[in-house]
Amino acid sequence: MGSLKDVLDDHLGRGQLLGAVALVDRGGRTAVAAAGWSDVGGTSPMTRESIFRVASLTKPITAAAVMLLVDDGLLGLEDPVARWLPELESPRVVRAPAGPVDDVVPAAREITVHDVLSSRAGYGFPSDFSLPAVQLLFSELNQGPPQPQQVAAPDDWMAALARIPLLHQPGDAWLYNTCSDIQGVLVARAAGQPFPEFLAERLFQPLGMTDTGFHVPAAKLERFTSYYKPGPDGVELVDAPDGEWSTPPAFPSGAGGLVSTVDDLLLFARMLLADGAAAGGRQLLSSESVRQMMTDQLTPAQRIAGALFLEGQGWGFGGSVDVARVDPWNMPGRYGWIGGTGTAAHVLPAKKAVTILMSQVELTSPSAPPLMRDFWASCASV
């Protein structure tokens, strides 16, 4: 496998890529490649400073925010979330996953902070999206590909969530996505301030993540990439720079709402590799919180049931952990995730390495596309 630029150019040449930025950092030595364009019209070349909708790469950042409050002593992993989210005080569970949403039983126990962090609260996506209780996540909560201007404000969102039964008993199953949105509301209520303000004060400003947030200010729109999905004749525009991310959303999604750059995500990743310390030495997260984030929390049966998304991996807090297979670096323990808008970011603690890939075409399935797999394979030689 060739260089980062070779990988990007190869996919561009085959018509499988519009534009992308790739970064690999090992021990503080950074390699970056940019290729292609930020829009179909070719009016703006892709650069290291390009801003992307990172989608589910939001999830590890949201989990880190929760762990900041655990370190503060405001949250405990075994605390019931109903203390801050009273809407979830008496959850109901469908009697059978495929059964009607009005055939329910009481939850066997309360939902805890740990359940929400590990995506095992009972809400979220299984392998079968057609289940009645799962369909309500789409129709009532607008779960799915990020649409920041289409989602209700947090209090209204939580009220709608409370009317939806759990698919499984708390702790029994790993389910994708919804728990990260719950985490964002939990942080806001426990901290007593809006989620975007908390992230800015406790993570983004201390780390120097100057281009990360839930919208792109007007002065930065020229660096913001367009967002596409595959279409019958190439790609179709989903969102332009002056679209849904150009103004703050009512619901700042902890599951997929952030925009960022490769260098901002590198700063976050380096904090994880430094056991929670920022580059200047300031400790943001405790070493124990970082360890728990990057430790698989699932049983073997839960990993198998979540195979549509996990592909044999485990799940820590906010990201996957390579446990059941060897990753392209031949180094189990890789932590991170991919975003449905065409993004990926991982840390390899044993190698003190970071890999980040940013593109802007929506994925067609939960599994990593060829571009990501070729990128990961190329990282071994950098």
Description of the molecule:
It is a single chain. The chain is an alpha+beta fold and 382 residues long. The protein folds into two domains: 239 residues, DD-peptidase/beta-lactamase superfamily (Beta-lactamase), CATH 3.40.710.10; 126 residues, DD-peptidase/beta-lactamase superfamily (Beta-lactamase). The protein has a seven-stranded antiparallel beta sheet, with helices on both faces. It has a two-stranded antiparallel ribbon with strand order 3-8. The protein has a two-stranded antiparallel sheet with strand order 4-5. Helix 2 packs parallel to helix 6. The chain is globular, with a radius of gyration of 20 Å. It starts with a helix and ends with a helix. The mean pLDDT is 95.
Classification by helices and strands: alpha+beta
Secondary structure: helix percent: 25-40%
CATH T-level topology of the largest domain: Beta-lactamase
Radius of gyration: 20 Å
Poorly predicted sequence stretches spanning 5 or more consecutive residues: none
Tally of helical runs: 12
- CATH H-level homologous superfamily name of the largest domain: DD-peptidase/beta-lactamase superfamily
Arithmetic mean of pLDDT: 95
CATH class of the largest domain: Alpha Beta
What is the number of strand segments? 13
Number of domains: 2
* Proportion of strand residues: 15-25%
SSE ordering: HEEEHEEHHHHHEEEHHHHEEEEEH
Strand order of the largest sheet: 2-1-13-12-11-10-9
Distance between the termini: 10 Å
The major sheet is characterized as: 7 strands, antiparallel
The dominant shape is: globular
- CATH architecture type of the largest domain: 3-Layer(aba) Sandwich
